[in-house]
Design a protein that fits this description.
2 domains; 10 strands; 251 residues; Alpha-Beta Plaits; single chain; alpha+beta
Length: 251
Amino acid sequence: MGRIFMRKFVITIQYNGKNYCGWQKNDNGKSIQEEVEKALSSLFGVNTEAVGASRTDSGVSAKEYPVCFVADTKLPTNRIPFKLNRFLPKDIQAYKVKEVDLDFNLRKSVLKKTYVYSIYVSEHTLPLINPTAYKVDNLDEQAVKKALGYLVGKHDLTAFVTPGGDYTTPVKNIYSASLEQDGIVYKIKICGDGFGYNTIRIIAGTLVKIGQSGNAEDFVKIMQSKNRQNAGITLPPKGLVLESVEVTYQK
């Protein structure tokens, strides 16, 4: 008999990226994709390819990350996350699933991506916060908020891209950019239609620079220069989380 139960699914996973070299399989270490494909293959008893909605860099985590795969299965759709989690490591877990048409293309269906970078203001390194946030001694909150306002819109983000990355165009649509405070922790939240290599971490590093100088207008000059050397440092991956990926399922 043929594979008459061939079906396609989009499963949403959450992962702590600390111990991984990013989503995509590569020669530099263990990847999220590798672990997900191993788990899917164990569940369905055949090698199963997993296609992610986006790349994430080494050490970066994701709260809501869609993954697409095809399987020959009669399993009820809502049971798949529970079954799959038995084969996944504890720092990668599935929690939502949707069955889609066999011709559905996940990468081409992504509308928006929202990232959050966390920093905290303290003279001291705080053990419970430091593993997932970048420490700064001071921060001009109003200057950072003003700079983030300049980011909203359609811009060439070449100044905030590490050269050599694999991306189609530096011109991106930024739909929203904000700074949210929770005590001494500040969350830089940016939503756009796509980002280049290290873009969010470089923007965050530039905002830290702005937050210390207090001159928000410098952000515009840096962006318009299209020169990576004028921007801030690339902040470490520990503070970055892919918060959500908005996907359309309409043809």
